[in-house]
Amino acid sequence: MLESLLPQLDRLFDYRIPERLAPDARPGVRVKVPLRSAGRMTSGYIVEVTAHADFSGTLSELEEVVSAVPVLTPEVWALARSVADRAAGNASDVVRLAVPPRQVRVEKAFVARRAKAAEAAATAAVVAAAGNTESPESADPSGDTPNRTPIAGYGDNVIETALYRRARLSITAIPTVRQTSAGEWVGAWAETMAAMAAFTLGLGRSSILVVPDYRDQDQLETALRAHVDDADIARLDARQTNPERYAHFLSCLEERPRIIIGNRSVVYAPAFELGLIALWDDGDPLHDEPLSPYVSSRDVALIRQAQSGSALAFVSHSRSSEVQRLVELGFVDDVPQNPKFLPNVIPTSAQVSGDAFAQSARIPSSAWMAARKALETGPVLIQVARPGYAPVLACASCTNPAHCLVCDGPLRTQSKNSPPSCVLCGAIAAQWQCRHCEGTTFRLIGQGSARTAEELGRAFPATRIIVSDGTRSLTDVSEAPALVIATRGAEPVAAGGYHAVLLLDGERMLARESLTVAEDCLRWWSNAIALAAPRAPAIIVGVGGELARTLVTWQQNRFASDELADRRRLRFPPAVRVATVKGTPEAVAGAVKELHDSVHGEDSAKIDVLGPVPDEDDFVRSIVRFDYSVGQVVAATLRAAVIRNATSRRKIPGRPANFRPPPSLRVRFDDTEILD
DNA sequence: AGCACGCCGACT
DNA sequence: GTCGGCGTGCTC
Fold first, then answer.
1. What is the rounded CA–CA span in Å between residue A603 and residue A599?
2. Tell me, in Å, how far CA of A653 is from C1' of B7?
3. pLDDT at position A353, please?
4. Strand-strand pairing, A64-67 and A274-280
5. DSSP-assigned letter for residue A2
6. Distance CA A34 to C1' C3 in A
7. Distance A638 CA to C2 C1' (A)
8. Cβ of residue A14 near strand C, that is under 7 Å?
9. Is the CB of A5 under 7 A from strand C?
10. What CA–CA distance (Å, rounded) separates A650 from A493?
């Protein structure tokens, strides 16, 4: 496999292995090979070693084995190929996500340590043979390992049995916090996932646990350390330096079961005897890969599960419509939580309290009183939509929104005494003048986390105020009374759970324009509510209707089912898949025609094309919607069109001799934002 | 990408 | 009759 970005080189090439390289030339190792003419080298990976080449011409010789460590295992290669095929992308792009950059020092240390271990094992084997001792114990195939903690909150052994059967599961997380055996507090979901991984480890198998961000990862790691030895955990995440990441990656290649945790790219980690892939909160957009070919970790997990035969679990408080679809198909099994501790959710319409602060923050009196009461005994969580002080500024005289004089972007205030600055370019609006009425003074609109904190501080003078937002986010707070103001997604875990949770900016959060607003809001709110102590009030302000009813009854699965039904009616994802086709008008028209040619007969109803509409640079854009059943044909057809356009690109007349136009056809599958 | 091959216009 | 322009296509 060549490390090339060119779609026309995204296939296997055969090379002859010279005698001197034969010992190291095994599948998975990094190599350098000649391509096209002498002296030009490309790097790549050996995928297969065979006695007879498929290629009929004369073979070039392998130039160099860069390192003897087989970093691209056959399983991961097969996964990369399937993922690329599904999204009409390059396998080498996927491999780049799967295999971190090589770090020579780290790799040498790994090789040396491994050689030493192998030597020690050989000596031990000799001693064992001489002494005729018992053979080393292997994992008990019958399943139940002694001393493990049961996975609580679900039916007896329901999850254990499912893991043993290697089932695919949608698990409704338990909406509260739990204390680990080491005394630390984490979301119950983390405890559940840790117990699942520990059980799988007891079966002698590895787990891959995928979380959206490092705050979730920290909780999961805390929970895991209470179940297993630290040496059984391997981490792969964006916070690590390159050497750290490579060291942990290499440790996954060892032939012993591990628990591998990290963000979305960890789904590609090599794993010894993979027994479980589990995703926390698969609806979080951080599971969507922003690099080509843009395949989300949910889809990668589904492909990997099919190839490895491992168990698969989607764990969340509110089920994504994608997983709902899989449940309705019968492909994934529903594991409901034991409804013993449902959260105490109270929706409140905007019946504003008489208190001065409550009025300015539009907090209803009942919520205000609940917060005041809860503060006597423990921490209270206040969820707001935005960070900063005043997220929006307007002209004080004409009330029109204020804009940056440099780039015309919107203005905001970061903290109380900081001058207004531009959201986009950061310029400080010094000599600002309104473009509508020549006014020169601002009016602050809305409350960001900092302004909410300041005003709450005034209302509760003796209370500790803690702010957790995008710029400064906390992972946990103590059980002492405090007001914790957090932007959605940045809520810290409180020891013992919050004594009250207030969700303030519901209306504003719902005002965002997106196909998935309702689903996203439900997820943000459910996740915050799940941080409450048992029976503590969770008050949601200014949200009514189906969403409020869903939270009160804690029936997110039914909401997901309704949501999916709506998408079916509209023929929107995930009821169907989508692909964007972008390029010159001729290239797009050609690709669309080929699609109609290859999806024909009774299948033709399974595909429809929206557009083309004009895009930037004389390009046009079409959106193809298609049923999952024709996904392979659609991907293969569009892939062929991309390759053809890359191979024979026409020169534009009247341009400089060496001018190369951009690729005249680009394809992107399953972009969740295109129909917003 | 980047290089070789080939087909057509201008030249000793 | 050949030299070299650049468009077209291939890379094991």
1. 6
2. 18
3. 53
4. unpaired
5. B
6. 32
7. 45
8. yes
9. no
10. 58
Nearest nt to the CA of A647 via C1' is C9
**Chain position carrying tokens 């739990």:** A178
* Tokens matching residue A146: 């002694």
Q: Could you report the per-residue pLDDT of A125-164, keeping only the tens digit for each?
A: 887 777 654 444 444 444 444 446 788 889 889 999 999 9
Find the nucleotide nearest A658 (Cα to C1′). C6
β-pair partners for A64: A32
> Which nucleotides of strand C lie within 7 A of protein CB?
5-12
**Residue A464 burial class via C-beta count within 10 angstroms: exposed 0-12, middle 13-18, buried 19 and up:** middle
Which residues does A86 contact at the CB level (< 8 Å), separation at least 6?
Answer: A295, A299, A303, A631, A632, A635, A669
Q: Could you give the count of Cα atoms lying within 13 Å of A308 in the half-sphere of its Cβ?
A: 33
Residue A520 parent element (H or E): helix A517-529
Residue type, A1: M
CA–CA distance, A129 with A309 (Å, rounded to integer): 36
- For residue A351 the two structure tokens come to 């019946």
> Which residues, including other chains, have CB under 8 Å from residue A470's CB and lie 6 or more apart?
A387, A487, A490
- Cα A323 from chain centroid? 14
Ranges in chain A, pLDDT < 70: 38, 131-148, 349-362, 389-390, 648-662
Residue A35 CA distance to nucleotide C1 C1' (Å) = 37
Cα gap A554→A351, rounded to integer Å: 24
What pLDDT, on the 0 to 100 scale, is given for residue A578? Answer: 97
Closest residue, by C-alpha, to the C1' of B1: A6
* Rounded Cα–Cα distance for residues A182 and A184 (Å): 6
AA letter at A358: A
- Distance of alpha carbon A397 from alpha carbon A53, whole angstroms: 79
What pLDDT is attached to residue A617? 78
pLDDT of residue A599: 94
Alpha-carbon span A49 to A27, nearest angstrom? 7
DSSP string for A316-340: ESS--HHHHHHHHTTSSEEEPPPTT
With CA of A649 and C1' of each nucleotide, the nearest comes out as: C8
> pLDDT tens for residues A501-515?
999 888 888 888 888
Q: Which nucleotides on chain B have any atom < 7 A from a protein Cβ?
A: 1-4
Give which of A444, A454, A468 is closest to A390, Cα–Cα: A444
| Of A159, A267, A256, A251, residue with least CA distance to A209 | A267
Return the residue matching tokens 């069109």: A641
Residue A182 CB contacts under 8 Å (≥ 6 apart), including other chains = A222, A225, A226
How long is the CA A586 to C1' B5 vector, in angstroms?
28
Whether A663 CB is under 7 Å from strand C: no
Give the residue ranges with Cβ < 7 A from strand B: A 6, 8-9, 36-37, 40, 660
Q: How far is the CA of A591 from the C1' of B7 (A)?
A: 30
How confident is the model at residue A133, as a pLDDT?
44
d(CA A556, CA A484): 26
Write down the pLDDT at residue A132: 53
Per the CB < 8 A criterion, the answer to whether A195 and A249 are in contact is no
Give one DSSP letter per residue of A418-452, joined into a string.
SPPEETTT--B--S---TTT----EEEES--HHHH
Distance CA(A94)–CA(A78), nearest Å, equals: 11
Does the CB of A105 sit below 7 A from strand C?
Answer: no
Structural domains in chain A plus CATH codes: 7-72 (3.40.1440.60), 158-341 (3.40.50.300), 344-391+446-553 (3.40.50.300), 577-675 (3.30.70.1710)
